[in-house]
Design a protein that fits this description.
By secondary structure, this protein is an alpha/beta fold. The chain has a single domain, classed as Nucleotidyltransferase, domain 5 (2-Layer Sandwich), CATH 3.30.420. A five-stranded mixed β-sheet has the order 3-2-1-4-5. A hairpin with an 8-residue loop joins strand 1 and strand 2. Helix 2 crosses helix 6 and helix 3 crosses helix 4. The model has no long low-confidence stretch (mean pLDDT 95).
Length: 212
């Protein structure tokens, strides 16, 4: 199992980036719930990242919850932006990712982060961020950045814990769908619950195999 490092971020700092904002998304493939985009800003003085930090998909739920506050304390700034199921239905998942990231950047800016002086390190091979922005930011895409780069791994953990918490809370408000276990992903039991109970406002209705 590969542990992330700050090698890429350090190289970006040496190339002139004052700040690096690692970005990763969570919930892209779910059939219910928001899509969440995590953001983690680091500078040259950030120091060693929390021990055990990895891409959220490589951690147990218990370990993610333990690491999240350590990650928030480690980074200069963190934020999570959301786009709702209705928004995913209305504009599509890629545009919804951009909208969620834009909201996260606004929150980070309002918290005092110098977003315009940052370079974005975006997981994947496609820049889905700049099309959502009025003014472009410097974006560097990197495949498997969530695995290799500590700022992006941190963003994934922050986003995953935030989104999971929302889905767990929904279990009490909209029981019967197993949100606490499936987190909005399309398990057989989840589809069976939709067939029995119908879809809710949390569901991405354009993604469902059955209409309700």
């Amino acid at each position: 199992m590969t542990d992330p490092t700050l090698e890429v971020e350090t190289a970006m700092h040496r190339a002139g980036a004052r700040y690096v904002i690692g970005i990763d998304e969570v919930g892209r493939g779910a059939i219910a719930g928001p899509v969440a985009v995590g953001l983690c800003l680091v500078d040259q003085a950030v120091g060693a990242h929390p021990v055990g930090l990895r891409d959220s998909k490589m951690l147990s739920e218990k370990r993610r919850v333990e690491l999240e506050p350590l990650t928030v304390a480690w980074a200069v700034h963190t934020a999570v932006g959301l786009a709702s199921a209705d928004e995913v239905d209305a504009i599509g998942i890629v545009a919804a990712l951009g909208l969620a990231a834009k909201r996260g950047l606004v929150a980070m800016h309002q918290a005092g982060a110098l977003v315009n002086e940052s370079v974005i390190l975006l997981d994947g091979s496609h820049d889905w961020l700049n099309p959502a922005l009025q003014a472009p930011l410097r974006v560097q895409t990197r495949v498997k950045a969530d695995r290799d780069c500590a700022s992006v791994a941190a963003a994934s953990v922050v986003a995953k814990v935030h989104r999971d918490t929302l889905m767990i809370e929904a279990d009490g408000r909209l029981p019967g769908y197993g949100w606490a276990g499936n987190k909005g992903y399309g398990s057989a039991a989840h589809f069976a619950a939709i067939d029995e109970l119908g879809a809710t406002d949390l569901h991405r209705r354009t993604w469902l195999k059955t209409s309700a």
